[in-house]
């Protein structure tokens, strides 16, 4: 189906900094074309200082919806007019829908991640998860995993400014779900090794290993990993991270960040349009 921008074309977009590397425009614009929907998806490089005025502009433009990426996810939680239950619990927003100027914040990172696990044949129910990081994406993933029946989540984070975030996340999970959550120092290799030995899932939700520093890994070497472990990295640039290569060397099943990107994007698409994204042609073309 031919895709043309008209005088009636609705706008959807991605806000954050940086955003030039994103493949979300390819995915969403192809979905709009396949379904014959008169929308376009663009990227705008917006920092935290510019964000409030950018939101005023999006309201004035009657934008249908938008995604937020770093560093805007937690700030959008504060600026939204309404929050979905998941976004309120997570404390971060990555998807916003505009209903006549009323901005409702959602978080599709968690649901997208769980769908990517299911697509790989893995169920989180009754499993032990080692999670690296405690930022916006990590929080969404952890909370959704807990809500979907994870037995235990061990959160590893550096003792930096985000250490309090990790403690708060663990307390929130333990208080509101049936999952037990604990926090450990990411720079304690003995604790990390011990956690991984009894885990079925390792999820890297830090930026360690992201281009241009793709030679780095949050796990020191392959000896920390075992064949019964699914190793998941939410980074998608590069498509194959150093952590993923170490996991393959250890005989682990691996899952890259493109799968999460696809499924969280599909949920955002559904929120904006009320239609299901045609996943298979998009997966074959871009993933």
From TrEMBL:
Q: What is its EC number?
A: 1.1.1.25
Q: Which residues form the Shikimate dehydrogenase substrate binding N-terminal domain?
A: 14-96
Q: Where would I find the SDH C-terminal domain in this sequence?
A: 257-284
Task: List the coiled-coil residues.
Answer: none
Query: Which chemical reaction does it catalyze?
Result: L-quinate + NAD(+) = 3-dehydroquinate + NADH + H(+); shikimate + NAD(+) = 3-dehydroshikimate + NADH + H(+); shikimate + NADP(+) = 3-dehydroshikimate + NADPH + H(+)
Q: Could you tell me the keywords of this UniProt record? A: Amino-acid biosynthesis, Aromatic amino acid biosynthesis, NADP, Oxidoreductase
Residue numbers annotated as active site: 73 (proton acceptor)
Please tell me whether the keyword DNA damage is annotated for this protein.
Answer: no
Q: Which domain of life is it from?
A: Bacteria
- Pfam families per the UniProt record, alphabetical: SDH_C, Shikimate_dh_N
Residues reported in the UniProt entry to bind shikimate: 22-24, 69, 94, 109, 236, 264
Give the record's pathway. Aromatic compound metabolism; 3,4-dihydroxybenzoate biosynthesis; 3-dehydroquinate from D-quinate (NAD(+) route); Metabolic intermediate biosynthesis; chorismate biosynthesis; chorismate from D-erythrose 4-phosphate and phosphoenolpyruvate: step 4/7
Its Gene Ontology molecular function terms? NADP binding; quinate 3-dehydrogenase (NAD+) activity; shikimate 3-dehydrogenase (NADP+) activity
State if DNA repair is listed as a keyword: no
Q: Which Gene3D superfamilies match?
A: Leucine Dehydrogenase, chain A, domain 1 (3.40.50.10860), NAD(P)-binding Rossmann-like Domain (3.40.50.720)
Which of this chain's residues are annotated to bind NADP(+)?
133-137, 234, 257
NCBIfam families from the xrefs?
aroE, PRK00258.3-3
Query: To which protein family does this belong?
Result: Belongs to the shikimate dehydrogenase family.
Q: What does this protein do?
A: Involved in the biosynthesis of the chorismate, which leads to the biosynthesis of aromatic amino acids. Catalyzes the reversible NADPH linked reduction of 3-dehydroshikimate (DHSA) to yield shikimate (SA).
Protein's name in the database: Shikimate dehydrogenase (NADP(+))
Q: Which organism is it from?
A: Candidatus Limivivens intestinipullorum
Q: Which gene encodes it?
A: aroE
């Amino acid at each position: 189906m031919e895709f043309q921008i008209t005088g009636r074309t609705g706008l959807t977009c991605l806000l954050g900094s940086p955003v030039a590397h994103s493949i979300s425009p390819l995915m969403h614009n192809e979905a709009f074309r396949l379904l014959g929907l008169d929308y376009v998806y663009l990227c705008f490089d917006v920092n935290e200082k510019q964000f409030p005025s950018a939101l005023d502009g999006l309201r004035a433009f009657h934008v249908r919806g938008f995604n937020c990426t770093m560093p805007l996810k937690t700030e959008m939680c504060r600026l939204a007019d309404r929050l979905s239950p998941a976004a309120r619990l997570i404390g971060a927003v990555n998807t916003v829908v505009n209903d006549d100027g009323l901005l409702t914040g959602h978080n599709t990172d968690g649901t997208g991640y769980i769908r990517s696990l299911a697509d790989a044949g893995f169920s989180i129910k009754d499993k032990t998860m080692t999670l690296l990081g405690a930022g916006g994406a990590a929080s969404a993933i952890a909370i959704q995993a807990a809500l979907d029946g994870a037995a235990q989540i061990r959160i590893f984070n550096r003792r930096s400014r985000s250490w309090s975030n990790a403690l708060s996340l663990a307390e929130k999970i333990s208080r509101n779900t049936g999952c037990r959550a604990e926090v450990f120092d990411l720079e304690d290799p003995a604790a990390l090794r011990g956690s991984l030995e009894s885990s079925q899932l390792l999820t890297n939700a830090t930026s360690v290993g992201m281009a241009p520093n793709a030679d780095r890994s949050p796990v020191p070497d392959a000896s920390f990993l075992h064949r019964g472990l699914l190793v998941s990295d939410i980074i998608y640039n590069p498509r194959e991270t150093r952590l993923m290569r170490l996991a393959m060397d250890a005989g682990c099943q691996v899952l890259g960040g493109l799968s999460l990107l696809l499924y969280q994007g599909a949920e955002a698409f559904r929120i904006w349009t009320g239609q299901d994204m045609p996943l298979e042609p998009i997966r074959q073309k871009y993933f």
